[in-house]
UniProtKB/TrEMBL annotation:
GO MF annotations in UniProt: DNA binding; transposase activity
Pfam families: HTH_Tnp_1
Gene Ontology terms describing biological process: DNA transposition
Family: Belongs to the transposase 8 family.
Protein name, UniProt field: Transposase
Length: 172
């Protein structure tokens, strides 16, 4: 079985999906790839709901300042304008949304080492208390079961004692 690089596979998938919509038999002849493989790649790419990243996209080389500039430029765009902007720049709307989230979280206060140690100690205490609670619940259930059994045994002994003893007044 022949294996294909991810870049090669991505370039073929881009040709299979819109807007190119190349025919599978033609690509199979051109590249010498089995048709079943191409159909499988197309089905997998369609199931993921997103086009694979093309090797020609320069998204990976954007600096933090450039990403921030893109977020600022697209902040007021509606969905249609954002789509046109993404096509023009070779970006995906999901990438811009992720960058926007990163920008929003950039000024969130970072937890200090003391806070993290406090949280760790609290989690450990909660874990210990939960274990102790489970242990006590089991002990309580066992005690309740023993009390119930004790009452049943006393009830059985009382019945057998009544059955063995002569009835009052019947022997006279």
């Amino acid at each position: 079985m022949k294996t294909y690089s991810e870049e090669f596979k991505a370039s073929i998938i881009v040709k299979l999906l819109p807007p190119h919509d190349a025919r599978v038999p033609a690509l199979a002849r051109e590249y010498g790839i089995p048709r079943d493989t191409l159909y499988s790649w197309r089905r997998q790419a369609g199931g993921q709901g997103a086009l694979p990243a093309t090797p020609c996209a320069s998204v990976g080389v954007l600096s933090g300042a450039e990403k921030f500039a893109v977020v600022v430029e697209t902040a007021t765009l509606n969905e249609l304008d954002l789509g046109a902007y993404c096509r023009r720049k070779g970006l995906f709307a999901e990438q811009i949304a992720a960058w926007r989230t990163s920008c929003q979280r950039a000024n969130d206060p970072q937890p200090r080492a003391g806070d993290r140690a406090e949280q760790r100690a609290e989690r450990e205490q909660i874990k210990q208390l939960s274990q102790e609670l489970l242990r006590k619940d089991k002990a309580l259930a066992e005690a309740a079961a023993l009390l119930l059994l004790q009452k049943k045994v006393q009830g059985l002994w009382a019945e057998s004692a009544d059955a063995r003893s002569p009835s009052r007044g019947a022997s006279k």
